[in-house]
Amino acid sequence: MLEVQDLRKRFGDKVALDGVGFAVRPGEMFGFVGANGAGKTTTMRIVMGVLDADSGEVRLDGKPLTYDSRRRFGYMPEERGLYQKMKVAEQVEYFGRLHGLGKAAAHDAAGELIERLGLTGRRDDAVETLSLGNQQRVQLAVALVHSPSVLVLDEPFSGLDPIAVDALADVLKDRCSSGVPVVFSSHQLELVEQLCDSVGIISGGRMVAAGPVDELRATEGRTLLKVVVRGASPGWADDLTGEVTTDGDRQVLLIESGDDQEILRSAVNAGEVEHFGRQRPTLAEIFREAVA
């Protein structure tokens, strides 16, 4: 288990982190979300030992992180760190050797990742000739080549097309299934909601919400009743306190409170009821309310 405990960090007069904490269990994918400047990258740099915290600590399986334990981590920084003149396969193998793999093991691991990430046709091309999306794939291969015990990825999906997103997501799911804790930051909240077991929302250096995605959706934000009626006459919901929108020949009512049975009767009298049920807030809606 990776545990981030009460991290605090200042840069001059600016408070970057103010008591940030969360935990990621083995085999769990944790989405770390927040606006630009909220503290995500600072937190990740402290986890990796690039920055020192003013106070607080990061622990792995109950023990403080050391240089040796961090060497087993896979890290993908927000600012990419590739050698532009090196060929793709050579680069991934090189980083594998830096992490202690033998020549044959590094070659095999690089070949597997290059194939899985859709880079087979570019393996002998210099990194500088690749698109930004393909450079992103190479950066991920570099983070994964040594089969890390923990993955810390800063905006790994940035700039990727949908096919590349799917390939990356499949690789991360495989690593999770083998028991690896995965932490990644992203502004793509729908993707975070789709992939992650748990999420942490940071704003102004403070954690404003954290927990399993399903629990947050059940307890945070507004839960609305959604009613979809086909063929209803305009004004059928005027006596109700919700908001009605039109989608073709359908009227869609979203309402926060009221007598469900009364609402249902009004909908049945108005037309053909296609949907009637509670709608939990999306992660994007929870995020907007949490950081407001």
From TrEMBL:
Pfam families listed in its UniProt record: ABC_tran (PF00005), DrrA1-3_C (PF13732)
Q: Which GO terms describe its cellular component?
A: plasma membrane
Reply yes or no: does the keyword Nucleotide-binding apply.
yes
How does this chain sit within the bilayer?
Answer: Peripheral membrane protein
Signal peptide per UniProt: none
| GO BP term, example | response to antibiotic
Q: Which GO terms describe its molecular function?
A: ATP binding; ATP hydrolysis activity
Which Gene3D superfamilies would you find in this protein's record?
P-loop containing nucleotide triphosphate hydrolases
Subcellular location(s) of the protein: Cell membrane
* Database matches in InterPro entries: AAA+_ATPase (IPR003593), ABC_transporter-like_ATP-bd (IPR003439), ABC_transporter-like_CS (IPR017871), ABC_transporter_ATP-binding (IPR050763), DrrA1/2-like_C (IPR025302), P-loop_NTPase (IPR027417)
Q: Where is the ABC transporter domain?
A: 2-229
Q: Which UniProt keywords apply?
A: Antibiotic resistance, ATP-binding, Nucleotide-binding, Transport
Family matches, as PROSITE patterns:
ABC_TRANSPORTER_1, ABC_TRANSPORTER_2
Q: Which family does it belong to?
A: Belongs to the ABC transporter superfamily.
This chain's protein is named: ABC transporter ATP-binding protein
